[in-house]
Write a structure and sequence with these properties.
Helix content is 43%, strand content 17%. By secondary structure, the chain is of the alpha/beta class. Helix 4 (77-92) links the parallel strand 3 and strand 4.
Length: 225
């Protein structure tokens, strides 16, 4: 039975993680009778000093699926550190025997999924360094909105594309070699304007600021200028 390792790399501590939910959706479509699935939470591994156990699990993987949010147009810091440390483990143990497939699920807070491309390039480079085959990336725009408004009519096509993309990942796992190299892009339906998206996004920042005892004007301060 092949081993599939699903890595959730959201830096969030208490808030619900979109990346984790996306990873669980992808994992639910993977046949448990054909594959052995193991979930790894990067933040928990680091905070509980369980990196060695996680790296041992990764070294036995046939497939690695990494899900994370876009941070500063690239990877979150904890994921960068995790992958760097795994590469050191990989080289010290003279590599692994398995030919590993790697997939990336990346979501950003902007409506344009293309903004995730640089992060895909980094994961592809990491795959090459561990002698793995990068299959493709699932690039998602407006990730948080996928679930916050998933029942809204204007999200119907995007949600369907998302489910189809997870099905594509599940299907390609049964092939011995990489069968797809094109990234999958999922953004908002064009009937939902970018201006309206940014309006609701800004409203959410104001709401979070008030919960922290701040006012709207505090969001525009420039303390480092």
């Amino acid at each position: 039975m092949k081993n599939i390792v699903l890595i959730s790399a959201s830096p969030k501590i208490k808030d619900e993680s979109v990346s984790k939910k996306l990873l669980e959706m992808a994992g639910n479509l993977i046949d448990a009778n054909a594959f052995n699935k193991t979930f790894i939470d990067v933040r928990q591994c680091i905070s509980h000093h369980q990196l060695l156990e996680a790296f041992e699990t990764l070294s036995k993987a046939d497939v690695i699926i990494i899900s994370f949010p876009l941070y500063f147009f690239c990877l979150p810091g904890i994921l960068t550190r995790f992958l760097q440390d795994y590469y050191c483990y990989y080289t010290e143990n003279k590599g692994v025997r398995n030919i590993v497939k790697v997939y990336a699920i990346i979501n950003c807070g902007f409506p344009e999924p293309e903004l995730n491309l640089e992060a895909v390039r980094v994961i592809k480079s990491f795959s090459q360094h561990i002698n793995a085959e990068f299959c493709f990336g699932l690039l998602i725009g407006a990730g948080p909105m996928m679930f916050a408004a998933e029942d809204a009519p204007f999200m119907k096509k995007s949600i369907q594309k998302l489910n189809n993309a997870f099905s594509t990942i599940a299907e390609t796992l049964h092939h011995e070699h990489v069968t797809r190299t094109d990234n999958i892009y999922i953004g908002l339906n064009f009937t939902f304007s970018r201006q309206l998206f940014m309006f609701f996004g800004n409203r959410s920042w104001v709401t979070m600021a008030r919960k922290s005892g701040l006012k709207k004007k505090d969001l525009y301060k420039q303390p480092y200028c």
